[in-house]
């Protein structure tokens, strides 16, 4: 797990480094600018090669015969200071560089002012309004150094237009320093006003020391193609803060210290029971059951009403079948204490869920509640809600989250006008406390939280992008993965983290063309690659 920082935490770490006397703010700014330039050349090696005659660009761009050109957009704070460093370093490498400033040079912070003056010795600093007036300024590279981690207010309409300069140059590579300007890095959300609209994006974002929370959430991950973290030499001053969310990167300890994947006999690996719906509705539960079995549960049974016995018997082999017509039948089946994990929701049906979920919760067994099992909480049945316990894992997508936690969801979708904005991390943590159990809020930026405040972001972005997961049934498989791990003895938070990470790994391993049925079958390959 990798800690994700808030903007305030990052400022505190930098200040601790400066207060130690081992480094100055000016030195940190120089290291940051150098890191950005190195990241650019690593991402696009061609920028380091001499340039021959360039093909004629679109008509609204100036024609260039040779040489690389950069436009650096600097803001009024230290992010702008980083931009001046980048401009100077690119100029030293032979680039033609044009610099625009939003703000008053006389009001720049001390270190940013020093780097402004260093640049002025080499070239001109133009007012940002000139960029707005002259969209024909062509460049190979646009550096967004307007606002970084400290943004707490929306862009003004005028500044939004300044930022939209980038959109008029589709052939340029856009590099954001720390953040895409206009995005709050504590939440990943764009800060907007009713009269300011901008199309924030970057081909590469370069941040320093560690990722920030917003780098893995919301608007930011939608609009940033790649993220790179560079060191500025302040690791020794970061003492960690276990109150913040972590990035769910379990590659080194996917199995959570549980020992070998297969040991002893099947009953030592637990027995997961997946509750299914009526005839013709059992596909989702079978997907979940296959996921639970493949991830290592010793035994898996699907519980179905009598009408669905033949249908499921025809399609299940290693997965067993139990006739469970109603709540009384479920109670009798659960007299077998070897059944230690339940999954309710996929294809269950709302009416069947109303009857079976209370029985499952009263049993005290570990429970995964998904889909229809979540819908029955929509009417705010406080008695039912109070039956949730610490062995439960709720797995809502955005619509289900809105139905179960409408007031929390309303805060999340409200327009963000100042930072730190309310984030998906905040919402999931609040929901976990209210429910008294683990909540896994699904999405490409899945957030997992437990009632004690622990939180992880399972991000399927950047190098772990898995767009093929947007396919029918993938969530059912995830529910089965969690249930299988609960059966094996994983704690709910650990089961949710591990299952969501493996879910993405399976999708990445299979690649384009993925359907939900492929996910469980890809697990053996993923396990082999992890030496499990």
Describe the structure in your own words:
- It is a single chain.
- With 532 residues, the protein is α/β, with parallel strands linked by helices.
- The protein has two domains: 2-244, Rossmann fold, CATH 3.40.50.10260; 266-490, UDP-N-acetylmuramoyl-L-alanine:D-glutamate ligase, CATH 3.40.1190.20.
- The protein is built from 19 helices and 20 strands.
- The protein has an eleven-stranded mixed β-sheet, sandwiched between helices. Strands 4-3-2-5-6-9-10 form a seven-stranded parallel β-sheet.
- What's the architecture of the largest domain in CATH terms? 3-Layer(aba) Sandwich
What can be said about the biggest beta sheet? 11 strands, mixed
Radius of gyration using CA atoms only: 27 Å
Shape: elongated
CATH class annotation of the largest domain: Alpha Beta
Query: In CATH, what is the homologous superfamily of the largest domain?
Result: YjeF N-terminal domain
Tally of helical runs: 19
How far apart lie the N and C ends?
Answer: 19 Å
Total domain units: 2
Q: What number is the mean pLDDT?
A: 90
Uncertain runs: 53-65
Strand residue content: 15-25%
How would you name the oligomeric state of the polypeptide chains in this document?
A: single chain
Give the proportion of residues in helices: 25-40%
